[in-house]
Amino acid sequence: MHEIVTLQVGQCGNQIGNVFWKKMCREHKILLDGRLQMEQSDRKDVLFYQADDFSYIPRAILIDLEPRVISQCLPLFNRENIFVSSEGGGAGNNWAHGYYVGNQCKADVLDIVQREVESCDSLETFILMHSVAGGTGSGFGSLMLENLRDNYPKKIITSFSILPTNEESSDVVVQPYNTVLSLNYLNRFTDSIVAMDNHAIGKVTMDSARVKNVSFDQLNSLVSTVI
After folding, report:
1. DSSP calls for 70-125
2. At 74, is the pLDDT very low, low, confident or very high (cuts 50, 70, 90)?
3. Residue 225 lies in a domain
C-alpha cells in the first residue's frame, strides 16, 4: 500500500482541507466523527488509518500560527496532529515573518510529521495545501517544503497552491512579494505544483453555479474537488 500524508498550512490551506476531508469521508462512507457508515471494498488506508477504537482518522497535519480557523475544523482529525503557535498572532500576511516564526517551532512540527510517517507502511506522497499570498501559507509553507525535501528526499511532494488575482486590489500590499518568494521554494522543492488562480476559480464557480456573488465556501468546494 502507498499512503498519502496531507499538510494544511495557514488559513486558506485549513479551510480547503476541511472541505476536502468532508468529501473524502462522503466518498468512503465515513461519518464526520470517524465511524464507518457503510462497509465497502475500497482503499481507505491511502488517506485514512484505523484507530484503536476502529474509527478512521485522516493522515492529515494541520498547521497555523493563529487558532481561529483551526478551532473550526472537523472533530475527525487527530488532535496530536494539530499545531498552532503559542504566540497566536499569525504571520501578519508577511512571508518573512511566517518563515521566521516557523523556523523557531519547526522541530515540533517535524516531530508530528515523523510520527505520521512512521505510522505508514509505505509512504509515497506528501500533499501541501496552502495559499501563496498571505504569511503563514507562504512563509511557513515554504519552510515545510524545504524540510520535507531534506528529511524525505525520495518521497513525492505535491502542492495545491492558491495564487492571488492581479485583476483586483488587495489589502495585502506585500502580496506580490509573498507570491514570488513562495514560487521560488515551490520550484526548488516540489515534484508537482497545481497552481490555481483566485480569479479563474471564481469565474468557473460563477459560470457553473450561475451566481453573481461567489462565496468562499463555493470556491473551497471547487478547489477540494480538484484535489
Report:
1. GGGS-TTS-GGGEEE-SS----TT-HHHHHHHHHHHHHHHHHHHHHHHHT-SSEEE
2. confident
3. no
